[in-house]
Amino acid sequence: MRWLEVLGGATILAVVGWRVGPQPFADAVRAAGPAPLLAALAITAVTTVACACRWRALAHGLGVEVPLREAVAAYYRSQFLNATLPGGVVGDVHRAVRHGALPVVADRGAGQAVQVAAAGAVLLVGPAPWASVLLAAVVVAALVRWPAVVATSLVAAAGHVVVFLVAARAAGTAAPLSELLPLALLVMVAAAIPLNVAGWGPREGIAAWAFAAAGLGAAQGATVAVLYGVLALVATLPGAVLLTGRLARGAARG
């Protein structure tokens, strides 16, 4: 089943490449300058700490204690493995082996649920004043019941969206934020679809379709999505350093 998911992601990516050609991929690499890379590193540091805090809160509720420092390090390692190995879940398996499966499953589920709910609310609510009030009431109620989980999940989801907006501007997209924000939310939801190759596939496919539907061009959407993938990958490199250090310490003890 895992290989079928990887094959699905590879197929989607191949179709995108066939439809828009290689130029968007080359443009994305060229647009990955120092400023967007540093911005992605800084934003991802915030989202990683938020995710680690959410995981700790859920683990604590399940009777598993994970120190904050270890949680942040483990989350960085997890993100790096997810971003570099097929399937996009190897890092979570690594966390589960070391700290238990149930807290990790709860963490993944809670994060995706809040992200999908927040994105759906923003996409469906629109400018209607009554809907905005209703959305605010739902958010407040959720924060009162599950404050740590909801708050940290919202911070993490917002961080991913901001990195996408950074990628859009770096790729030369001049559309106003009011147009880009719904596109970013839609692409972030698509990125959670488990038919991917280390996160690649559905994200690029939905971005190309959504940008084309918005009149911004499928090629531009593919460029932004690919650039986002590059920024997200670079932002996980602290996890590579931490993983290498752990392996070196393990080899020294062995």
UniProtKB/TrEMBL annotation:
Under Pfam families, the record lists: LPG_synthase_TM (PF03706)
- Give TM segment ranges: 32-53, 116-142, 148-168, 180-201, 221-243
Check the record and name the InterPro entries matching this protein: L-PG_synthase/AglD
What's in the keyword line of the UniProt record?
Cell membrane, Membrane, Transmembrane, Transmembrane helix
Where in the cell?
A: Cell membrane
Mode of membrane association: Multi-pass membrane protein
One cellular component term (GO) for this entry is:
plasma membrane
Official protein name in the record: Flippase-like domain-containing protein
Q: What is the lineage of its organism?
A: Bacteria, Bacillati, Actinomycetota, Actinomycetes, Propionibacteriales
